[in-house]
Amino acid sequence: MSDVNKTIQKWHASFRKGTDFDSWGQLVEAIDEYQILARQLQKEVQSTNSTDFTEEQKKTLGKIATCLEMRSASLQCTQSTEEFKLEELKKLETIIQNILTYNKEFPFDVQPVPLRKILAPGEEENLELEEEDAAAGAGSTEAFPPRAPASQGTLLPRLPSEPGMSLLTIKIEKIGLKDAGQCIDPYMTISVKDVNGVDLNPVQDTPVASRKEDTYIHFSVDVEIQRHVEKLPKGAAIFFEFKHYKPKKRFTSTKCFAFMEMDEIKPGPIVIELYKKPTDFKRKKLQLLTKKQLYLHLHQTLHKDS
Questions:
Q1: What is the distance between the alpha carbons of residues 68 and 57, in angstroms, rounded to a whole number?
Q2: pTM (global) more than 0.85
Q3: Residue 252: is it exposed, middle or buried by C-beta count within 10 angstroms (0-12/13-18/19+)?
Q4: Which of 29, 109, 111, 235 has the most beta carbons within 10 angstroms of its beta carbon?
């Protein structure tokens, strides 16, 4: 089997996996699979080195990616009036299977969209100057390599223990937002910064949130802080940036942020306030997101090797 046929077979398997999850009501898994496949197709569409597909075939692949994004958005936003149904999506299965010979008109009036742009902290504010004040200084991130958040997240395993040292696990339980149900692809970016806003640890992203309920978005995910607590410098803080996808602007944006300082590290539950973007890693100009009783809910566990 040629490489291109193997690729098509892989896409088809991913498509079937996503629609099966969708049919079974496993919506989080379906969304993940749809988004992974959409990005793979978009990557192929934008590739300038690939000669496996004609420009017309790439256009069709781009339209399939658009439909996958639309179905994913429909599953996440129950109030959407522009619902893209599973039965409609399933019509695309034979097109994926036969993309090399498909020559009919695409069944839906959609256009290919560019590869989703994931912006680094601070960049999205430059695109929204009409909505925001001038951005506060974001810290340098040169010490660690850039990473592209995926729907599965980029969480890291716990560090090896050291005698007399403590490791911190933070469970992100849920975040309260007045428009929680309208957030698409919500996830958290977790970073540890010094007083100057410089990264002390690799930055991590959670998977896309597990569910939405009333004014809460639930994560229920453990984050392993990548440095022993005793080695964190005075004045350091752990930041939690809440991000979501904006389909009209076609990029992922920070909606708000929260942070924990070193004196707040202690076992048990903690509730912390939410602040308006842009993320102020230096903690100089903080503005509460809302006067409502809406917070980020966490639970801390300390692991000490005695």
A1: 17
A2: no
A3: buried
A4: 29
